[in-house]
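Incident log, support desk, overnight shift.

02:14 A customer reports that sequence design results differ from what the structure should imply. Their input is reproduced verbatim below. On-call engineer (initials T.W.) acknowledged and began investigating.
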């Protein structure tokens, strides 16, 4: 019989059809089995998996305002959107069998053993996801379709940086669905207190906050400055004169509670995920945190951990304090003088008086227009260190703010103006290698008044300065500044602080979000 006979052709066709049918049956069975084992119910049938699942149920990936949710396999098993993914998915199924083996051999058969091996298991997942450019994440999330108008400033900046640096999702988003064991990974050694932009400061050690019944600190170097400063340092309150504030632009600034967040902590990469943005990319703190400074303060004030290291920046939260205070800031000039105005509604007084004399103290510090390294990024934060009184590494309960390597004669100092409600006058000094509350001649007038539950404080200052520790303010320069508010009779670090801002005279700079144009009136 010829090979091309009708009978042979018919037989061959039958074999082909049978082969196709068997192939479809096998593929269908494998696919059914694959999808069945992809179900979350199947995954948590191993009792060890109920531990991370219960954690997952508390996250936004499980329950959110849009009603969407993901299954275990969506993150841990490759999708089948590409033919090659099916092979990888099969491989992942084999790898997942290690959890079963771990249970049988007693490696992870108890919650305690499972917890002990969390980091090892998590690192395997992170490595696999990084190798695949976080494809599991990008099945739902995509840089190109993100709506920056609906994101927080910090998220926008981080995503922009991730694109620039070629980072993938898992580089930053560890611990978003389960226990954040990445914080248990070995941390990089911490640096010693150094220049404002030196990243490797030593890790801070815990220290107790002042006791609630502590006596008011009236030492000459107290955070509020001396209770009775020399007459030469005082700028007496004068009758209200000056600009028409109704015609001056307003800027709402959130002053937040910083706890023991020193410059060393802020610039230490193992503590603060944005340290590299500040140091390496020269991005000011306000670029990320102006929009959510209130959330930062609310977290710190109640003793919740902050930063990537989960540091508790307030070991003993002061009772009754709020996390932030919104302040309306205004500034103008008349060609010879510059005027600053601060307005806010203080929260309810708590009754605890660390400084029994002054209900409020407000201080503003600014550089000479780029004269202090890092001030363009952090304002006056470079004056706050771990070794200050009531801070983490405090060895001297009288030590106050200073600039590392600060020098009055070298021009590396911050001009300082402060108003105190108890004294009803202002102080004109500076911060260099130490803080001095006198010597300046630029501050003409400092005035404060409380109208009902509203405080208004104004400074009037000569643009030319002219005294010890005075910076000259001139057109064409950009000055970096920050300010702090002690309210409710507080002192030392128990204040509210701004992020770093900038100002210039009659010069628009819309490219910089933390810049304020001081327009002549």
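02:41 Re-run completed on a clean worker. Output:
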């Amino acid at each position: 019989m010829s090979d091309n006979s009708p009978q042979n052709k018919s037989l061959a066709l039958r074999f082909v059809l049978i082969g196709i049918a068997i192939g479809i049956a096998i593929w269908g069975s494998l696919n059914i089995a694959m999808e069945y084992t992809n179900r979350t119910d199947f995954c948590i049938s191993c009792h060890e998996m109920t531990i991370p699942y219960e954690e997952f149920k508390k996250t936004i990936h499980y329950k959110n305002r849009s009603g969407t949710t993901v299954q275990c396999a969506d993150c841990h098993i490759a999708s089948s959107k590409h033919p090659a993914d099916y092979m990888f998915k099969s491989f992942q199924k084999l790898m997942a069998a290690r959890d079963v083996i771990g249970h049988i051999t007693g490696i992870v058969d108890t919650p305690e053993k499972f917890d002990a091996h969390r980091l090892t298991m998590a690192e395997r997942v992170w490595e696999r996801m990084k190798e695949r450019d976080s494809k599991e994440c990008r099945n739902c999330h995509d840089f190109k379709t993100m709506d920056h108008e609906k994101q927080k400033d910090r998220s926008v900046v981080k995503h922009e940086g991730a694109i620039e640096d070629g980072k993938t999702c898992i580089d930053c988003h560890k611990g978003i669905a389960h226990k954040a064991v990445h914080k248990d990974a070995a941390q990089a050694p911490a640096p010693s207190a150094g220049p404002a932009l030196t990243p490797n400061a030593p890790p801070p050690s815990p220290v107790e906050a002042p006791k609630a019944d502590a006596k008011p600190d009236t030492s000459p170097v107290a955070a509020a400055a001396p209770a009775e400063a020399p007459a030469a340092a005082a700028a007496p309150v004068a009758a209200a004169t000056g600009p028409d504030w109704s015609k001056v632009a307003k800027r709402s600034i959130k002053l937040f509670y910083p706890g023991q967040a020193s410059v060393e902590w802020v610039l230490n990469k193992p503590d603060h995920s944005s340290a590299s943005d500040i140091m390496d990319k020269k991005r000011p703190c306000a670029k990320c945190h102006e929009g959510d400074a209130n959330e930062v303060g609310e977290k710190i004030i109640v003793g919740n951990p902050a930063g990537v290291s989960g540091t508790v920046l307030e070991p003993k939260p002061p009772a009754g304090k709020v996390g932030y205070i919104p302040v309306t800031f205004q500034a103008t000039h008349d060609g010879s003088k510059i005027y600053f105005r601060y307005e806010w509604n203080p929260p309810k007084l708590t009754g605890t008086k660390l400084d029994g004399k002054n209900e409020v103290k407000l201080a503003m510090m600014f550089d000479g227009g780029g004269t202090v390294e890092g001030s363009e990024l952090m304002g006056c934060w470079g004056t706050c260190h771990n070794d200050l009184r009531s801070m983490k590494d405090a060895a001297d309960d009288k030590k106050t703010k200073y600039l590392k390597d600060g020098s009055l004669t070298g021009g590396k100092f911050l001009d300082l103006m402060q108003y105190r409600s108890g004294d009803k006058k202002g102080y004109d000094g500076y911060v260099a290698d130490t803080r001095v509350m006198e010597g300046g001649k630029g501050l003409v007038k400092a005035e404060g008044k409380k109208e009902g539950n509203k405080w208004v404080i104004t400074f009037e200052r000569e643009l030319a300065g002219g005294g010890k520790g005075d910076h000259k303010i001139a057109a064409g320069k950009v000055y970096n500044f920050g300010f702090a508010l002690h309210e409710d009779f507080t002192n030392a670090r128990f204040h509210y602080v701004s992020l770093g801002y900038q100002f210039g005279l009659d010069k628009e700079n819309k490219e910089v979000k933390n810049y304020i144009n001081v327009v002549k009136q």
